[in-house]
Design a protein that fits this description.
- InterPro entries: Cobalamin-bd (IPR006158), Cobalamin-bd_sf (IPR036724).
- It comes from Emergencia timonensis.
- This is Methylmalonyl-CoA mutase.
- This protein has a four-stranded parallel β-sheet, with helices on both faces.
- The protein is of the alpha/beta class and about 600 residues long.
- Helices cover about 45% and strands about 10% of the residues.
- The chain is built from 21 helices and 16 strands.
- Helix 5 links the parallel strand 2 and strand 3.
- Helix 10 (about 255-265) runs parallel beside helix 11 (about 290-310).
- The model has no long low-confidence stretch (mean pLDDT about 90).
- It folds into two domains: about 10-360, TIM Barrel; about 445-585, Rossmann fold.
- The chain has helices spanning about 15-30, 35-40, 45-55, 70-85, 125-130, 150-160, 170-175, 180-195, 220-240, 255-265, 290-310, 330-350, 355-380, 390-400, 400-410, 430-445, 470-480, 495-505, 515-530, 560-565, 575-580; strands at about 65, 95, 135-140, 165, 205-210, 245, 275, 315, 415, 420-425, 455-460, 485, 505-510, 535-540, 545, 555.
């Protein structure tokens, strides 16, 4: 079996499962789940209990993400969203509290790092206040389970009354540069799952956003579903918990969203209500009218699915300004009110959807998912992995990576010329979209000869877990002839410097999304200077913003990037020409 395993530690040195579970049980015995205003209002002990009641009642539930860089401002925003919706005759069921990445770092190490401008809890009092502001269910996703601080965050979240905590997927993709603690992180990750499992009878669920993990990097939806089954095996079968999945960020095909919801329900043997279907952010850009249309296109499909086959997923209208800045409370409210109209009109669409075809396509995906799952599990066994040890499985899957998993074990048939050597049972929206953007960008180029960037070495990567922009840049530059060295997501600055030296490259292209553009560029340019690489050309694209000078929300930092010598054109249509000019290559383009 030709599989390269990029181990960061020896997974066999992890404590045995009996020890991990015993530790988790002891920690759980000292946790009392808090009672939130939401629980009091609806007479429930958990979000899952509430959702089952709403599913029986045929109610469509709604979700939004909220969070700024202080608890005071976040609390004010929560009140404003809730009060504005009530005043408009509307409501919202759950709010995802968006925490800063630094919340995933143990407190004793936080002074080493620059926060990215999202919420940081500074005391247990702030944690406990999460569910005491308004009677809306609080949700914790990013940088909780899967981080370097999983057990502590789970303990604090449960104590605050949060009964759905994630994000399992981020163990595989989100890194904390400067802290090489992978063995500790893996043990902490598994232990946190076991703690959550101790409360499954109370309705506690582990949230997992497939689009934030390796799931986002698969090209075949069947393999994505198979990955979800692997996550369930680890968290449910081995750790005794319940998983509530989430997806949607990277699903621009509206009907594929429906097919996938049916398919992921088919592999859920415990019938756990999902967390939420996120809005499609692929189609969001700087044009607000286009964003309005994108919202209604995916929202109608999501609502129609929940009306016909209730599975507990709240629908999440993404604010129209999401691709431009962190949305203000008024913009969150506006999106929620738009969703109300969609909920009103969706029944007219639902009755004309061919549900037999939807379910047939979903069953095809489920069959492919089972093939992928079985192939991966058999391979792990052949590799000597203890398939009854959650930590060993997670660590080795992370070390193998999604591309190798898909190439070696994918459900699609083999074909030499296909991407990753397999024909997808159903290609993901991200693959379709990347291809479209690539083709559009390349069609605007007028090269004097094929592959004008032949001989040019370029290093690319993403500052965070979002790989969409990086994928487009990588593929466009490769098609223009460049030798591209892809560092993946959540790239460390030291890794960039090392790769520049190893490859002899003087050009690095970084994609960013999570509000850290300025600090990353500042630290990168300083590190390159220290390494004798001051002549390196740095290009950055994506969401070029960050919270600056005490602001509550990130602001555009394009001008600041330009002043420090970073190319911030943020234009895929001109990147080939720009890279060529840095390499001393001249050619014509439109």
């Amino acid at each position: 079996m030709d599989i390269k395993i990029n181990r960061r530690f020896n997974e066999k040195e992890l404590p045995d499962m009996k020890t991990i579970k015993a530790d988790a049980k002891k920690i759980a015995s000292n946790i009392t789940i808090g009672e939130t205003l939401f629980m009091k209002k609806y007479g429930v002990r958990s979000e899952a209990e509430y959702k089952r009641k709403m599913m029986d009642a045929g109610k469509i539930m709604k979700h939004s993400v909220i969070g700024w860089n202080s608890w005071t401002v976040t609390e004010e925003g929560i009140r404003k969203v809730y009060d504005s919706l009530v005043e408009a005759g509307s409501s919202i069921d759950r709010l995802g509290i968006c925490c800063d990445w630094i919340m995933g770092v143990p407190e004793e190490y936080r002074d080493r790092f620059q926060a990215s401008g999202s919420l940081i809890f500074h005391s247990q009092e702030e944690w406990n206040a999460i569910g005491q502001v308004v009677p809306v269910n609080p949700h914790l996703g990013d940088h909780m389970i899967g981080s370097l601080n999983s057990v502590e965050n789970v303990t604090n979240g449960l104590t605050a009354g949060v009964t759905t905590i994630g994000n399992l997927a981020q163990y595989f993709t989100y890194e904390y540069p400067g802290l090489d603690m992978e063995a500790y992180r893996t043990e902490d990750y598994v232990k946190a799952m076991a703690i959550m499992g101790e409360f499954k009878d109370r309705g506690v669920c582990m949230h997992c956003n497939l689009d934030d993990g390796y799931g986002a990097q698969f090209h075949d939806v069947a393999n994505l579903l198979g990955w979800a089954k692997l996550e369930r095996y680890i968290a449910e079968d081995l750790m005794g918990g319940r998983v509530a999945h989430c997806y949607g960020n990277l699903f621009s095909d509206s009907m594929l969203r429906v097919v996938f919801n049916r398919a992921i329900t088919m592999i859920d043997k415990y019938h756990t209500p999902g967390t939420f279907v996120n809005g499609n952010t692929i189609d969001y850009g700087a044009s607000l009218p286009r964003n309005y249309a994108a919202l209604t296109s995916y929202a109608i499909a999501d609502v129609a699915c929940q009306l016909t086959y209730p599975s507990g997923y709240a629908v999440a209208p993404v604010p129209y300004t999401e691709a431009i800045r962190i949305p203000a409370p008024e913009e969150i409210v506006e999106a929620q009110l738009s969703m109300d109209m969609v909920i009103e009109k969706a029944p007219y669409y639902a009755r004309y959807i061919d549900w037999d075809k939807i379910n047939a396509d979903a069953e095809l995906l489920a069959t492919g998912a089972n093939v992928f799952f079985e192939r991966v599990m058999n391979a792990l066994d052949d590799l000597g992995v203890d398939t009854c040890h959650a930590g060993e499985i997670a660590a080795v899957l992370k070390a193998i990576g999604p591309e190798q998993l898909e190439v070696a074990f994918g459900a699609g048939g083999r074909e030499k010329e296909a991407m990753r050597g397999r024909v997808p049972i159903r290609p993901t929206s991200i693959v379709q979209t990347i291809k479209k953007i690539e083709n559009d960008a390349l069609s605007k180029q007028k090269f004097e000869n094929e592959g004008p960037l032949q001989g040019v070495n370029v290093v690319v990567g993403s500052t965070d877990v979002h790989e969409f922009g990086k994928e487009v840049i990588r593929n466009v530059l490769r098609k223009a002839g460049a030798a591209v060295f892809d560092l993946g997501t959540s790239v460390s600055i030291s890794e960039i410097a090392d790769t520049l030296i190893e490859t002899g490259s003087s050009i690095v292209c970084m994609s960013t999304y999570n509000g850290m553009a300025y600090s990353f560029a500042r630290d990168l340019t300083a590190a390159l200077k220290d390494a004798g690489l001051a002549d390196t050309h740095v290009l950055m694209g994506g969401r070029l913003n960050e919270a600056m000078d005490g602001s509550d929300v990130p602001i555009d930092v394009t001008d600041k990037l330009i002043k420090m010598g970073v190319n911030a054109d943020n234009d895929i249509d001109t990147i080939v020409g720009t890279v060529g000019s840095y390499a001393g290559i001249s050619f014509k383009s439109e």
